[in-house]
Amino acid sequence: MAGDAQFGSVSVFVPVGQLGAGVRADEVSAALDHGFDAIAMDAGSTDSGAAYLATASSKNSRDAVKADLVLLMAAQHTAKVPLIVGTAGQAGADPSVDWTLDIVREVAREQGFRPRIAALYSEIPAETLKAKNAQGKVTPLPPLGALSDETIDGCQHIVALTGPEPYIAALEGGADIIIGGRSTDTAVLAAYPLWRGAPPGASWHAGKTCECGAQCTANPSMGSGVLFTIDARGFEVEPLHARNRCTVHSVSAHMLYENSNPFRLVEPGGVLDVTAARYEQVSDARVRVSGSVWEPRPYTMKLEGASAGPYQTIMMIGIADPNVLANLDLFHDKMHHVLTRRIERTMGARAGRFDVSLRIYGWNAVSGRPPPPGTAAPREVGVMCVITAETQDLANQMAKACNPYLFHMPLFDGVELPSYGFPFTPAEIPRGQVFEFKLNHVVAVDSPFELVRTAWFDLTVGAPADA
Predict the structure, then answer these.
(1) First CA to last CA across the chain, in angstroms?
(2) pLDDT for 232-257, tens place per residue?
(3) pLDDT at position 461, please?
(4) What does the alpha-carbon distance between residue 102 and residue 111 come to, in Å, rounded to a whole number?
(5) Other CB atoms closer than 10 Å to residue 406's CB: what's the count?
(6) pLDDT at 147
(7) Residues 306, 50 contacting (CB under 8 angstroms)
(8) Which residues contact 361 (CB under 8 A, 6 or more apart)?
(9) In angstroms, what CA-CA distances link 76 with 110, 172, 265?
(10) Is the Cβ–Cβ distance between 320 and 419 less than 8 Å?
C-alpha cells in the first residue's frame, strides 16, 4: 500500500517480546541514542496455557516485570514518548491489568515519575456475553460448535482481544503510559503508527513482524529488542544489539509465527494481506518491507475463556533397567493397567472419575506418538505418572495406592523385583487444579469500544481521575 505521500515517518521501539522476559539496558540506551516516537510491547498471550487466564495470574514474577518497567519507564520519562503495554499480567483479565498497574504506580512513586496512565479493561461479564450470544453475535471457530450459557458460566474469566482503537483513544487523551487488557499483539504495536496516520498495511505488518521483539532477527538469542520505522512507502526493521541483524528471511518468516497462512493475518476489523509484499536488505542489519495491504472487514473480537477442572497429583521415577528400556511400550501398557486396577480395587466407587497417564521422557513423552520402528533403546528414561481425580485428596490417595507398583513392578513374571528411582520423597507431588480453555469463538461488535472500558490514573495531580 503506497500510503499518504504527506505522511513523514514514525519509529517504535519494541524492547522485548513480552514484558517481564528481560529488557536489556544496553538496548534501551541504543534506542534512546537512535530516537523513537513510542515504546510498545505485549505482556503475555495464551501460549503458556489456560491457568493464567483462569486464575488471572502471571507466569512472570512480579520482580521480573518490575525490573523491566524500571528501565522502560525511565526511558519513557527521558524521551517523553508514550509507553504502551498490551495483554497485561499474562492473560489480560481485569485483575491482571490491576496487578500490572500496581507495579507501574509503585515504580513511578519510587522514581519520582508522574505519568498520566490509561488502563484498558477488556474482560467480559458472563451476562454480557450471553446477551451477545442470544443475539446471534457469537460465531464458533473450528473445531468448536455453538456456545452455550453453561460453557460461559463455567469460565472463571472471559476476555475479548482488543484492537488498536482503544489504544489510539488513550493516546488521543494524552496518556503517557497505557496498560491494556487482552489485545492482539499486532494491535498493540500498530496503534501508535495508525494514530499518527501511517499506512495501515505497513502498520499492521510491522506490528506482526516485531510482536516478539528480537525473534524477527537472525540471532534471537543475541538480543531482546528491535526498532521499526514506518514511512509512506512501507517500513524498515532493525535489531538494537550492535552485532545482531535482520535478514529478508528472518523478517518474512515471522508471518508464519502463530499463523497458519503466511500471507494473510486476521485481526479485529480487517485482514492484513502480504501476498504482494516485497522484502529488501537495505543494509547489513536492516530490512525494508513494502507492498503490504490492509483489507477492512466487519469488526469482530476473538474471545478467550478458561475454566477450572479436576485435580492432579504426579509422581516421577527414573529407569535404567535394560529389560524395561528394551520394551518401553510393553512397560507402559502393563504399568497403566496395573495402576488403574490398583485404584479401582482399593478405592472402589469412592474413586469417582479418574485418569492415569504415564509419560515416558526420553522415549515419546513430548510427541505422544510411537517412535519409528528400529529406534534404539535409550540409556535411561524418566516416567511421569499423572493421576487426575475429582479432588486433590482423591488424587493424593490414588498416588499413594499406586506408589509400590511404580517403585517395584517387574516387567516380566519370575524375575527379582526391580527398584526404580524416585527423585523425591514423599513421592507424590500435588499439582493442584487442572485448567482448560473453553472458548474458541469471535463476537461481532457495533464499535471497537463496545467491550472495552478505560480508566484514567493521573499521577500528575496525585489522584485517580474519572474514567
Answers:
(1) 37
(2) 999 999 999 999 999 999 999 999 98
(3) 80
(4) 14
(5) 22
(6) 95
(7) yes
(8) 381, 382, 383, 384
(9) 15, 17, 30
(10) no
Residue 12 parent element (H or E): strand 9-14
Domain with CATH 3.30.70 in the chain: 308-437
Classify the phi-psi angles of 312: left when phi > 0, otherwise alpha if psi is within -120 to 50, otherwise beta: beta
Three-state DSSP at 190 gives: helix
Q: Other C-beta atoms within 10 Å of 405: how many?
A: 15
Spatial contact of 228 and 214, defined as CB atoms under 8 Å apart: no
Chain-centroid distance, C-alpha 342: 39
State pTM to two decimals: 0.92
- The Cα–Cα gap between 192 and 168 comes to 7
Q: pLDDT value at position 45?
A: 86
Residue 418: DSSP 8-state? P
Alpha-carbon separation of residue 286 from 10, 29, 59, 128, 247 (angstroms): 16, 19, 33, 46, 7
Fold of 308-437: Alpha-Beta Plaits (3.30.70)
Measure the CA–CA gap between 364 and 355, rounded to whole angstroms: 19
Interatomic CA distance for residues 15 and 28, integer angstroms = 7
Give residue for cell 527423585: 423
Task: Give me the DSSP letters along 71-113.
Answer: HHHHHHHHHT--EEEEEEEET--HHHHHHHHHHHHHHHHHHT-
Nearest to 210, CA basis, from 231, 227, 194 = 227
Task: Tell me if residue 227 falls in helix, strand or coil.
Answer: strand
CA distance 6 to 306: 46
Q: Strand pairing of 83-90 and 177-180? A: parallel
Q: pLDDT at residue 344 above 60?
A: yes
Q: Is 182:92 a contact under the CB 8 Å cutoff?
A: yes
Say if residue 390's pLDDT is above 60.
yes
What's the rounded mean pLDDT across residues 81-100? 97
pLDDT tens digits along 5-32: 578 999 999 999 999 999 999 999 999 9
The phi and psi torsions of 84 (rounded to 5 degrees) equal -120, 125
Query: What's the distance, CA 272 to chain centroid?
Result: 21
- The amino acid that residue 209 corresponds to is T
DSSP code per residue over 301-363? EEEEEEEEEEEEEEEEEEE--HHHHTTHHHHHHHHHHHHHHHHHHHHGGGG-S-EEEEEEETT
DSSP code at position 218: S
| Banded model confidence at residue 447, pLDDT cuts 50, 70, 90 | very high
